[in-house]
Amino acid sequence: LIKGVVHTFALKVERYNGKIDTELEAAEAHVFVDEMHITNVIFNLMDNAVKYKRPDVDLHLMVRTWNESGKLMISVQDNGIGIKKENLKKIFEKFYRVHTGNLHDVKGFGLGLAYVKKIIMDHKGTIRAESELNVGTKFIIALPLLKTD
Ligand code: ATP
Ligand code: MG
């Protein structure tokens, strides 16, 4: 599923002189997901990475999967404009957008991450973001693995 979204984005990212790297290392990836919604989740995160790139820096996206304490972990990391600590706690709220003045005139409703959060919660998972202004942002998702015993 993730490879599919990455593939969809490859052309778009190339247009920005950017690149997407993947490290899909999750050995156990048996999760029960709503395919359409989880595809949209990854899509939204990658869409943001493209929208909030630094204008003077080539976009570099890194998508990782791994296993950690019985969970499937997925991270989407960019080298974009980043988000200030005080704003970071609000980004999952409906209609919240960081005020960036005239620096970049990027359109949006502030709904993408509220949707992402809802879908991950519905899957009994968690999502958090780490960010540094002018360095980049990383979203980390944990989804419970299916119990196979
Ligand atoms: P929509 O997704 O509804 O089209 P949006 O992108 O503005 O609009 P969200 O995806 O919910 O809304 O993101 C909320 C805000 O968080 C964004 O407006 C932006 O300020 C900030 N943000 C989200 N992702 C990133 C990112 N990867 N890098 C920097 N800022 C981000
Ligand atoms: Mg968005």
Automatic annotation (TrEMBL):
Name of the protein in question: histidine kinase
Query: Which residues are in the Histidine kinase domain?
Result: 1-147
Q: Which domain of life is it from?
A: Bacteria
Species: Caecibacteroides pullorum
